[in-house]
Amino acid sequence: MLIAGNWKMYKGPSEALAFCRAFVPPEGVEIVVCPPFSALREAMATGLTVFAQNVHWEREGAFTGEVSAEMLLELGVAGSIVGHSERRRYFGETDETTARRAKRALDAGLAVVACVGELEEERERGETPAVLHRQVSVLPRHERLVVAYEPVWAIGTGKTATPEIAQQAHGLIKTILDAPVLYGGSVKPENAEELLVQRDVDGALVGGASLDIDSFTAICETAARLSRS
Ligand code: 13P
Known about the structure:
By secondary structure, the protein is an alpha/beta fold.
């Protein structure tokens, strides 16, 4: 079981350091925090496993605003998120760029959490299986690849996928690619258990609730308890 906290564009170095120092990770569950680039070093200094939120597909070059896998590895970062729906929506990320980022990062030695998930209108039109197929089939096969199913209509909206919807999507993803699949989208202490007990839910990618130490700890403790049982 893996619980990853995606902090998005929240917490600068001092806030990240304070959070990571105060956070006590429960035993028996893998925990990752994903701070903004500017706070990676501080988060890592506390001994937690740290992933970036994005990584470029070239080692270096004229790519203003981007950071390479080698640069993250030099810092000691263990992995990166790629293809988050916010990157796809606001920064023109596509299935192709997501796959390129994932492949390069994995080849360089990072772990990767590759995000997929349908829009609300795609779900309403019954296109979820086709969308997931398109997004997942381009991802590289690799032992350090983890997929995160994040239905876009459930991100930051308070609308969580029902456990049945999550299980169905995760099951489908696993028929396309054999990798652990995290669920993301309004995961909170109150709904973590019903999602995490689903057969094909291997953990969670937590946004808003990972910013607060009590709610993130509660979700991690639920995952640890379920892993032990
Ligand atoms: P929320 O948990 O805030 O809905 O965000 C989910 C997410 O985007 C994690 O990557």
